[in-house]
Amino acid sequence: MFKKILIANRGEIACRVIKTARKMGIKTVAVYSDADANALHVKMADEAVHIGPSPANQSYIVIDKIMDAIRKTGAEAVHPGYGFLSENMKFAEALEKEGVVFIGPPSGAIEAMGDKITSKKLAKEAGVSTVPGYMGLIADAEEAVKISNEIGYPVMIKASAGGGGKGMRIAWNEQEAREGFESSKNEAASSFGDDRIFIEKFVTQPRHIEIQVLGDKHGNCVYLHERECSIQRRNQKVIEEAPSPFLDPATRKAMGEQAVALAKAVGYTSAGTVEFIVDGHKNFYFLEMNTRLQVEHPVTELITGIDLVEQMINVAYGRELPFKQTDLKINGWAMESRLYAEDPYRKFLPSIGRLTQYRPPVEGPTPRGGIVRNDTGVFEGGEISMYYDPMIAKLCTWAPTRLEAIEEMRLALDTFEVEGIGHNLPFVAAVMDHDRFIKGNITTAFIAEEYPDGFHGVELDEETLRNVAAAVAAMNRVTEIRQTRISGTLGNHERKVGDEWVVTLQGREYHLNVAADRDGSTITFEDDGGHKRVTSDWVPGHSLATLDVGGHPLVLKVGLIPMGFRVRVRGADLKVHIRTPRAHELAQLMPEKLPPDTSKYLLCPMPGLIVKISVAEGEEVQEGQALATVEAMKMENILKAERAGVVKKINAAPGASLKVDDIIMEFE
């Protein structure tokens, strides 16, 4: 077996590979840029080599710098992770020339399947059903519009060398085709060093289902069942699960066998993924093959019990797969939620900064018979950089059934504490409670259909509101009792804690009676006389409260506010006030403070770089017109006018680096 491998990547996937290598007794080498000098993968590896400035095109995707690091450390093999050089044929060839093993497929397979245009042509020649589209190279935006008109809208504009949602746009008309082509081309050039673009028909109401394949150098190739990846936003996966709630055994077998046949046709070895679009009638169409380890591979590992990274290393070393297709059964159900550094309340725009608090749930078995796993590349006090992908962690749960796996995910998300940056924890928590998701009635249009105006928080159902109200009443009782025990108070000024309280949250109010004893509190609701028993070991000052309310587990993230708590649970962010009846009566007389009017300003919605200003001072603009383009975390974001107006003043120029809410331009 290899004695030392180099991981040509960063962040979460580099940490993931290091864990398996350590388990196998293999020493590891990390590479890092200026921005990653203190990164977790650097601390975890046995050795680390600096490879250049922060931008990926000056460090992580520069083949010569990776090769120099290999020579310095004497690494025998390289695991590329995903993204960066993982599907770069020239990198695989450079390693082969150097006599270093590439822990991935042969360069010929990367060339055949890693390029989306070539792979679609090969798939079509092999008799695989493919989505209609134009597979040739497209010279400019006008040609892109002409081709889009011929295919028929909507169309998908894609970077040939793309992945992870980079360089992808859906266009519903000529204007969007023209803008989408330019943005996709620019993103592809900066992210992959390859700006080739192709266009295909966008299949409406599709499911995105992919098959994990694994092949060795002895002619064996198997499929490890499927992953449902339909919950996507901006063409980037957000929630994945395995297996799919949509497939039946016959369709699963057909898709798996077709994926294996395709892999064998190109002499594929190592782990790879064949992606399909599946319509409502279970017709499936080849989309692309990712010749690398997928981001969402943990859900496959959880339902099969197979460590895919370990198998990739074994296959690269020349070992035969230790199992056959008939050995690969589906055990239980797994969910994965991708935690991104993006603010769901600001249209999911990127968020960077320092993680002032990062406390994931405890990994391993849960009291309910499930499993929690968290793959991450960050730590508390670390910084989320503007230079790379915004993923913070991949939170995974496993349970015997789908509904149990969802419930495990709900509790794990409620337990996950992240502060200092915007993040999408509230959003993925909301999806876990969404009726369509629970029923498995999902497509790639789920987020666009269910959140057409963006995410504005969660309205909790009545039962959950009552549980939160009861929990807060019990917690408030603990806080109040503690305050009565403060030493040094004046004599004859003993403070007594009353039993009658009013809890207000989400526009509702509950009049409660709190009866406490040594083991907990019994909360009585005056409106119907209902009771809820609350027990917990929470103490004031703790930011996480794990309670049992009426026999059901409830986890709250809590913080103190005047006369109450800030509570976050199940995707909701609530100000929960608890007052005596008299204080509640007086609070109703307080005036409401209104937010400032910013309607006459275009504010920068994220920390980023101004790439383009599309209008001039004095120009009249219409609703939906492009005003400026901001680049952040390798993604271009076109800011458009929300209504008609006249540009009064432009405060920022291309090349300017702006903070959140910096003024880009003003309107009359």
From TrEMBL:
GO molecular function: ATP binding; metal ion binding; propionyl-CoA carboxylase activity
Keyword Magnesium: yes
Cited SMART domains: Biotin_carb_C
Catalytic activity: propanoyl-CoA + hydrogencarbonate + ATP = (S)-methylmalonyl-CoA + ADP + phosphate + H(+)
GO biological process: lipid catabolic process
InterPro entries in the record: ATP-grasp, BC-like_N, Biotin_BS, Biotin_carboxylase_complex, Biotin_carboxylation_dom, Biotin_COase_C, Biotin_lipoyl, CPAse_ATP-bd
All copies of domain Biotin carboxylation, residue ranges: 1-452
EC assignment: 6.4.1.3
Cofactor(s) for this UniProt protein: biotin
Pathway involvement of the protein, from the record: Metabolic intermediate metabolism; propanoyl-CoA degradation; succinyl-CoA from propanoyl-CoA: step 1/3
Keyword Cell cycle: no
Record's keyword terms, sorted: ATP-binding, Biotin, Ligase, Lipid degradation, Lipid metabolism, Magnesium, Manganese, Metal-binding, Nucleotide-binding
Protein name per UniProt: propionyl-CoA carboxylase
Organism of origin: Paenirhodobacter hankyongi
